[in-house]
Amino acid sequence: MLSWLSSVLQGYQWLLLDGLWQTLLISVMAYLIGSAIGFCLALANGTSVRSIHIAIKTYTYLFRALPELILIMLLYYASDDLFGWIFKLFGFGQLQLNGTTAAIIVLAVVSAAFACEIFGAAIKAVPIGMVEDAISLGMGPMLRLRRIIFPIMLPLALPGLANLWLMVVRGSSLVSVVGVMELALAAMAGMVRDLMPNRDVMKAAASTGFSTATDLADWLVQKLKMPFREAHHVSGRIVALAEKKNVLLSQLSLAELQSVHGAINASVFKVLSVEASVKSRTSFGGTAPSNVKREAKRWLKILKVKTK
């Protein structure tokens, strides 16, 4: 059993250790920050100021209900749009968060909402008589907290804090959602950087499978004013003919096309080639060369990439 496990893990030990380190880093940081914020919120929630009480309750109810995955993705992908103006206001430039930082922030904020309830319940469990005795002895708020409240409430809060730790550790795995994207983008960047397109192979691959059959149906509708249901039927018959002859649609003769439908004329060949099909996609997001060049220039400008 151990030999099989060692053979499986061979070569991946450092990756596993790095993953363990990332898990511990995210979990410990989020847990400590969240617990500290939650404890401060629990103390503030005990004030008689109604607006503070309502704000804290709203925060705890909201962030205990929201999924951590949605919050991590929102913060990671939209952090600059949401909070970038604050950084630009103080001259810090563009806000850019990596997956680890986004996970720590989100898990800390969410765990703080749970910790606030845990500490709040533990503080309420402290006997009021002991607090009143401390007040009668002249203890100030910080001294009461340090000598009376904290030593009594901490053992009461430990079970809830242990459960919170388990929740944070489980939540740390959600960073893989943005981590996988970072790895995929890095791999894609490397692939594109070393890419050497082969036009002939790409054209041959695009021509297989009768990919221009839809263009043919559109031509029948636009030029011959044919109902699309009939155009779909005619296109299917022409595809079947090309498949039978083992040729591309553009390699069929005009006579062969007219044998399927007599109204077809020579202008149909303008839409049967792959090049024409690509050029015809001129709508937003289409594959027309003019669209591709325009979007490439726009993104090169956004990414501040200098071209030769």
Sequence-ordered SSE layout with sheet pairings:
Layout: H1 2-9, H2 13-44, H3 50-65, H4 68-89, H5 99-124, H6 128-136, H7 141-171, H8 175-193, H9 199-207, H10 213-224, H11 228-245, H12 254-260, H13 274-280, H14 289-302
Short key terms for the protein model shown above:
308 residues; mainly alpha; 14 helices; 75% helix; 0% strand
Structure characterization notes:
With 308 residues, this protein is an all-alpha fold. Helices cover 75% and strands 0% of the residues. It contains 14 helices and no strands. The radius of gyration is 33 Å and the shape is elongated. The protein starts with a helix and ends in a 6-residue tail after the last helix. The mean pLDDT is 82.
Query: Radius of gyration, rounded?
Result: 33 Å
Helix content: over 70%
By DSSP, the count of extended strands is 0
Q: Distance N terminus to C terminus?
A: 57 Å
Succession of helices and strands: HHHHHHHHHHHHHH
Biggest sheet, in brief? none
Quote the average pLDDT. Answer: 82
Low-confidence stretches: none
Number of helices: 14
Describe the global form. Answer: elongated
Q: β content, as a range?
A: under 5%
Helix/strand-derived class? mainly alpha
